[in-house]
Write the structure tokens for this entry.
Amino acid sequence: MLLTVKYAPKKLADMLGNADRLEHIRQWMLHWLSGKKRKPLLIYGPPGTGKTSIAYALKSEYDLDLVEMNASELRNRARVDRILGASASAGSLFGRAKLILIDDADVLAGRTDSGGGNAIKNFLSESPCPAIVTATDIWDKSFSGIRSECEIVDFKRINKLSVRKHLERIAESESLDVSAETLEAIATRAEGDLRAALNDLQAMGPTARVHDKDIFEMVRGIFKAETYAAAREAISGEIDYDLIKLWMDENIPAEYETAADIAAAYDSLSKADIFDGRIRKTNWQLMKYSIDLATAGVALAKARPYHKFTKYSFPAYLKNMSRTVERRAILKTIGLKIGARVHGNRRDALAYLPLLKEFGKKHAHELMAFYDFSEDELAFILETSVSRVKAGA
Ligand SMILES: Nc1ncnc2c1ncn2[C@@H]1O[C@H](COP(=O)(O)OP(=O)(O)O)[C@@H](O)[C@H]1O
Ligand SMILES: [Mg+2]
């Protein structure tokens, strides 16, 4: 399970940082619950500081009916009326009080959907229920309408000491054998972003639990498997499945030699990724299909067995811990550029990365031109240095 989900704050007291703001928001909620109307709240600040979490914490602490709305729903009059119907207002005698959440409104009101901002503003100006709007950046002109309807609360980055202590507590309760230096390094790199910190800790977790030697054996077992059953048997113990995916991803080109085998293997792995993104969050039982795609699917991608010794390598992702922050930023722009070309969303687009890497090894210039990648982005995709890209090597 994702640590960010498992350790999501359940009440306001579980939340780190921004103590005065949290208290202010509690008072705002209590006002509503005692029947006094207040302006909607616009909470803005850097990612991973708890903007979305606080809405959920209020929901569970005060037993509210939390309704998330996006711009297109807000434009739909009938839907808005239904949601805000007779029993809608806070403190109503009928059912639970509602709290409306318009999450990441700066994205919703973005350039691609210029009507979105107006729909949100209009809704806020007449909302009979408490509403929370979140955003990272609110100073764009197009956002001034929303700003004027709200009381603005700024969330600051969480300080490093709090982040580190939080990581220590979680490492302890998850029995992760992670050194104090590593926790300190993760806390530093997170730059006040708790989501990033927990995700980095999660990436470290499996290595802390499973010996490298065992993982190498598993990876070998999966690659060499010639039947579905053999591939599934290769996985044993308390191995984290996301880690297996990273290892397969890293080592497919080392194990497989023909282009067809490599493409088929990556195809299966990409399907597992997409499957995971869409399904795992909601239905854990379906996870076994995605495990199959990442293991047996990759094993059976080969046309015939390779009877050779392969030296498998450690996933680059884990080696590059020090670069995770830059990585995230660059992954975002790469995902957007691919998404624009393949008409998919950013997350799904990233499933193409392994294929692009293979293609780009021989056709770097075509790749750059087609997706409009910068040299940095190309270097990232090819997992090489910018200087090598510049030299055309
Ligand atoms: N202030 C906080 N206190 C405790 N955990 C937090 C806090 N902010 C973020 N987190 C952790 O990070 C995850 C993502 O936080 P989220 O509220 O979605 O961030 P934001 O909306 O500000 O980008 C949460 O599920 C939680 O695990
Ligand atoms: Mg959020």
